[in-house]
Amino acid sequence: MNQVKAFLKRKNIEISAKRYFVDALGAMAQGLFCSLLIGTILRTIGQQAGAAFLADIGSYAMAVSGPAMAVAIGYALKADPMVLFSLAAVGWSANAEGGAGGPLAVLVVAIIAAECGKAVSKETKVDLLVTPGVTILVGVALAKLIAPPIGIAASAFGNLIDSATKMQPFLMGIVVSVLVGIALTLPISSAAICAALGLTGLAGGAAVAGCCAQMVGFAVISFRENRWGGLISQGIGTSMLQMGNIVRNPRIWIAPIVTSAITGPIATCLFKLEMNGAPINSGMGTCGLCGPIGVWTGWMSPDEAALAKGAQAISPTALHWIGLALICIVLPAVIAPLINALCRRLGWVKDGDMKLER
């Protein structure tokens, strides 16, 4: 047993929830961002502007989302170069075999393939053949074996959430908005979760509302401590910056969470806000304005995951734009400070509790 532990340590193979469900998941979201998400944005802009070359660039970027995710995961797992480069083939196969649940299949398959590759890396005199051979053989074999059922399960769960939100838009608007919003602020990736589940439609709209409530909410209620730098870094960066402060005083989280519980059902019941762009956008919030941009791209050119659920391209009306602005920016910026003021009056939140620089 001690020999096994020593071997794993020497190979930097750390079997832990943090390594696999925080580091790897977060890296997967970055891989998606740098391929599928930016590609979708470029393609939509190209299509709407009549710029075929820009649409082509976007399509090329979207096509390599599987390899991008797998390589990003390998980087998070501190894979050796030979393993890292070999993961491109693994990511492509897992994403293709996983179908609508491709991102989740890539996560599982790439982790196993990367760790197997790391285990044999530099252990033989023919490392040039062994390391990529083991990584690709293990990864592609697993992709053929387990990616389809993983994809089916992820897609089914995402469809269940979508159907439940359609049947119970008020209740599920609250549940989805709050849970995805909380995931965005926690040191895990809400974007990767939404991508893995293919979260689009009304459920995607509720997720956008929850994420925006967290980011805009924290940005505004902490303005007295963090001023303009904090407003920008949290409002279009990430509310995860407040995680350390939340650990010290969890009550500072009340205002953003309650705000998400309010804006979620407003999005689903009043404005019927649907996020039919790339599912990753559902978990991005106002990070780089990807949440609102995802809604816009979904209006113009729905993602494949949304099309599979019956989504259609629409010409947005003034009501669509007003609803988007209210849900993503205006309501969180108004509601969160009001709730936080009550928390301050009760003595639950004090000056300095949300200071980012200590």
Describe, in plain words, how this protein is organized in 3D.
The chain is an all-alpha fold and 358 residues long. It folds into two domains: 10-155, no CATH class; 168-345, no CATH class. It contains 16 helices and no strands. The protein has helices spanning 2-10, 17-49, 52-63, 65-76, 81-98, 102-120, 127-167, 169-185, 190-197, 201-221, 223-235, 243-248, 254-270, 290-300, 304-307, 318-345. α6 crosses α9 and α10 crosses α16 (318-345). The chain is globular, with a radius of gyration of 21 Å. It starts with a helix and ends in a 13-residue tail after the last helix.
Nutshell version of this structure?
By secondary structure, the chain is an all-alpha fold. It folds into two domains: 10-155, no CATH class; 168-345, no CATH class. The protein contains 16 helices and no strands.
